[in-house]
Design goal:
The complex is a heterodimer of chains A (about 240) and B (about 180). By secondary structure, chain A is mainly β. Chain A is built from four helices and eleven strands; from the N terminus they run H-E-E-E-E-E-E-E-E-H-H-E-E-E-H. Chain B is globular, with a radius of gyration of 17 Å. Classes of the chains: A mainly beta (about 240), B mainly beta (about 180).
Chain lengths: ~240, ~180
């Protein structure tokens, strides 16, 4: 067994430091966070299995968010790349990575987004790719804008890109957000602040990557993703550390 | 002893998750005309009983023979997803999974593993869906470990005239049983 049942919000995988469901600073949790204690799921065949995504699933340009319209989107072109690995450092190969984001003005191409900022007809904000055999992925996009939201008075989200990442098992499935280094809004953002552990929060901040920039064309950021929950870390280590 | 690297923590999918996921969120793990295809449908509610209109449900399951990729036919990934609509409703079309053998003997009743992503969920919710007309439900070790009848019932889809019905309650008196992700 590699999981332990604890009260809601507690860290349950030894290598995972996920936020609590019930985080008062993020208002939308109030009616959506479960109140009963979570139960332990046995590690049966369903939990250790994962989907296998075929080569034909994504198109050759699905990773390039700047080539989806009839022209180029407005904004600062960026290369966002990295590596997906498990907590033992092994690459997670041939798995699906999806991103979605606001445009350069901080507006999503979504009917629910009412922010008074222009839409960009050349930017859908969606991309996807499969990791390579070494676990690497690469997107070309534009820098997303910050935007206001209604969580609290004068609330603004830091610039971010949503990431959806699949691992080798059901247990390693992750949806998260990538942030940019030095963003002054991180200090005020309840979503980012919901992660109490500084090392874990640091995982969500991409690193500026001068070596990966493309001269006269685009800056680059590196965002490595470490998936927990693959059974790579035995539970016994917790007892040893406590002992 | 090293605990390995700190894993990347979860963040909410936010309200705009359909932008990135709707391209393969048709809720059809098989075409509805496939022999043996069943539908599972219902609605997702919050703690005030309001429909959750911006959720993504993801299904992981065995095939009817109890197999997973890569042992399955190439068209079967074991994975499907769907977005809730403006009434909080979802619908999945799939083949019922087989019962799964347990290492210590016995079987797990046929089930789907379900992840729920939505605005307001800082990490996914995890639950299972069992089927009311499977004999193995009575002896399933996970269901048997749940002492309260209503908690067990919150994991079992009910067979109806046009498929299975199963509502999901994120919070409140009818709260669905959720598991450690």
């Amino acid at each position: 067994m590699s999981k332990v049942t604890q009260d809601i919000g507690a860290t349950v995988h030894p290598d995972r430091l996920d936020p609590a469901y019930d985080y008062p600073g993020y208002v939308a949790t109030h009616l959506r966070a479960p109140k009963r204690p979570l139960r332990s799921l046995p590690e049966g065949l369903t939990e250790i299995a994962g989907p296998v995504f075929g080569e034909g699933l994504v198109g050759p340009l699905d990773h390039d968010l700047t080539r989806q319209g009839s022209g180029e989107p407005i904004g600062e072109r960026l290369i966002v790349h990295g590596r997906v690995s498990d907590s033992a450092g092994r690459p997670v190969a041939n798995q699906l990575v999806e991103i979605w984001q606001a445009n350069a003005a901080g507006r999503y191409a979504h009917t629910v987004d009412r922010h008074q900022a222009p839409l960009d007809p050349n930017f859908s904000g969606a991309g996807r790719c499969l990791t390579t055999s070494s676990g690497s992925y690469r997107f070309i996009t534009i820098r997303p804008g910050e935007y206001p939201w209604s969580n609290h008075d004068n609330a603004w989200r830091p610039a971010h890109i949503h990431f959806s990442v699949f691992g080798r098992s059901f247990s390693s499935r992750l949806v998260t957000q990538m942030y940019f280094p030095g963003d002054p809004l991180l200090e005020y953002d309840p979503m980012f602040q919901s992660i109490r552990d500084r090392r874990a929060a640091g995982r969500l901040v991409a690193k500026f990557d001068l070596d990966a920039t493309q001269r006269d064309w685009a800056l680059a950021y590196r965002f490595d993703v470490v998936l927990g929950g693959d059974g790579a870390t035995p539970i016994e280590t917790i007892g040893e550390e406590r002992g | 002893m090293s605990r390995g690297e700190v894993a990347t923590p979860s963040q909410t999918s936010g309200p705009f998750l359909s932008i990135g996921t709707e391209w393969n969120a048709r809720g059809q793990m098989v075409d509805p005309s496939t022999p043996g295809a069943v539908t599972i449908s219902g609605r997702v509610f919050d703690g005030a009983g309001a429909p959750v209109i911006d959720a993504l449900l993801e299904i992981w399951q065995a095939d009817p023979a109890g197999r997973f990729p890569p042992a399955t036919a190439s068209s079967w990934t074991g994975f499907g997803r769907t977005l809730t609509d403006r009434s909080g409703a979802y619908r999945i079309c799939t083949l019922k999974p087989g019962a799964l053998p347990l290492a210590g003997g016995g079987v797990e009743a046929p089930h789907l593993d379900v992840s729920i992503f939505a605005r307001g969920l800082l990490q996914r919710l995890v639950t299972r869906i069992y089927f009311s007309d499977d004999a193995e439900v009575e002896s399933d070790p996970l269901l048997s470990s749940l002492s309260e009848a209503e908690v067990r019932a919150s994991l079992i889809a009910r067979r109806g005239a046009s498929g299975y019905h199963h509502d999901l309650w994120l919070q409140g008196d009818k709260e669905t049983a959720f598991f450690v992700p």
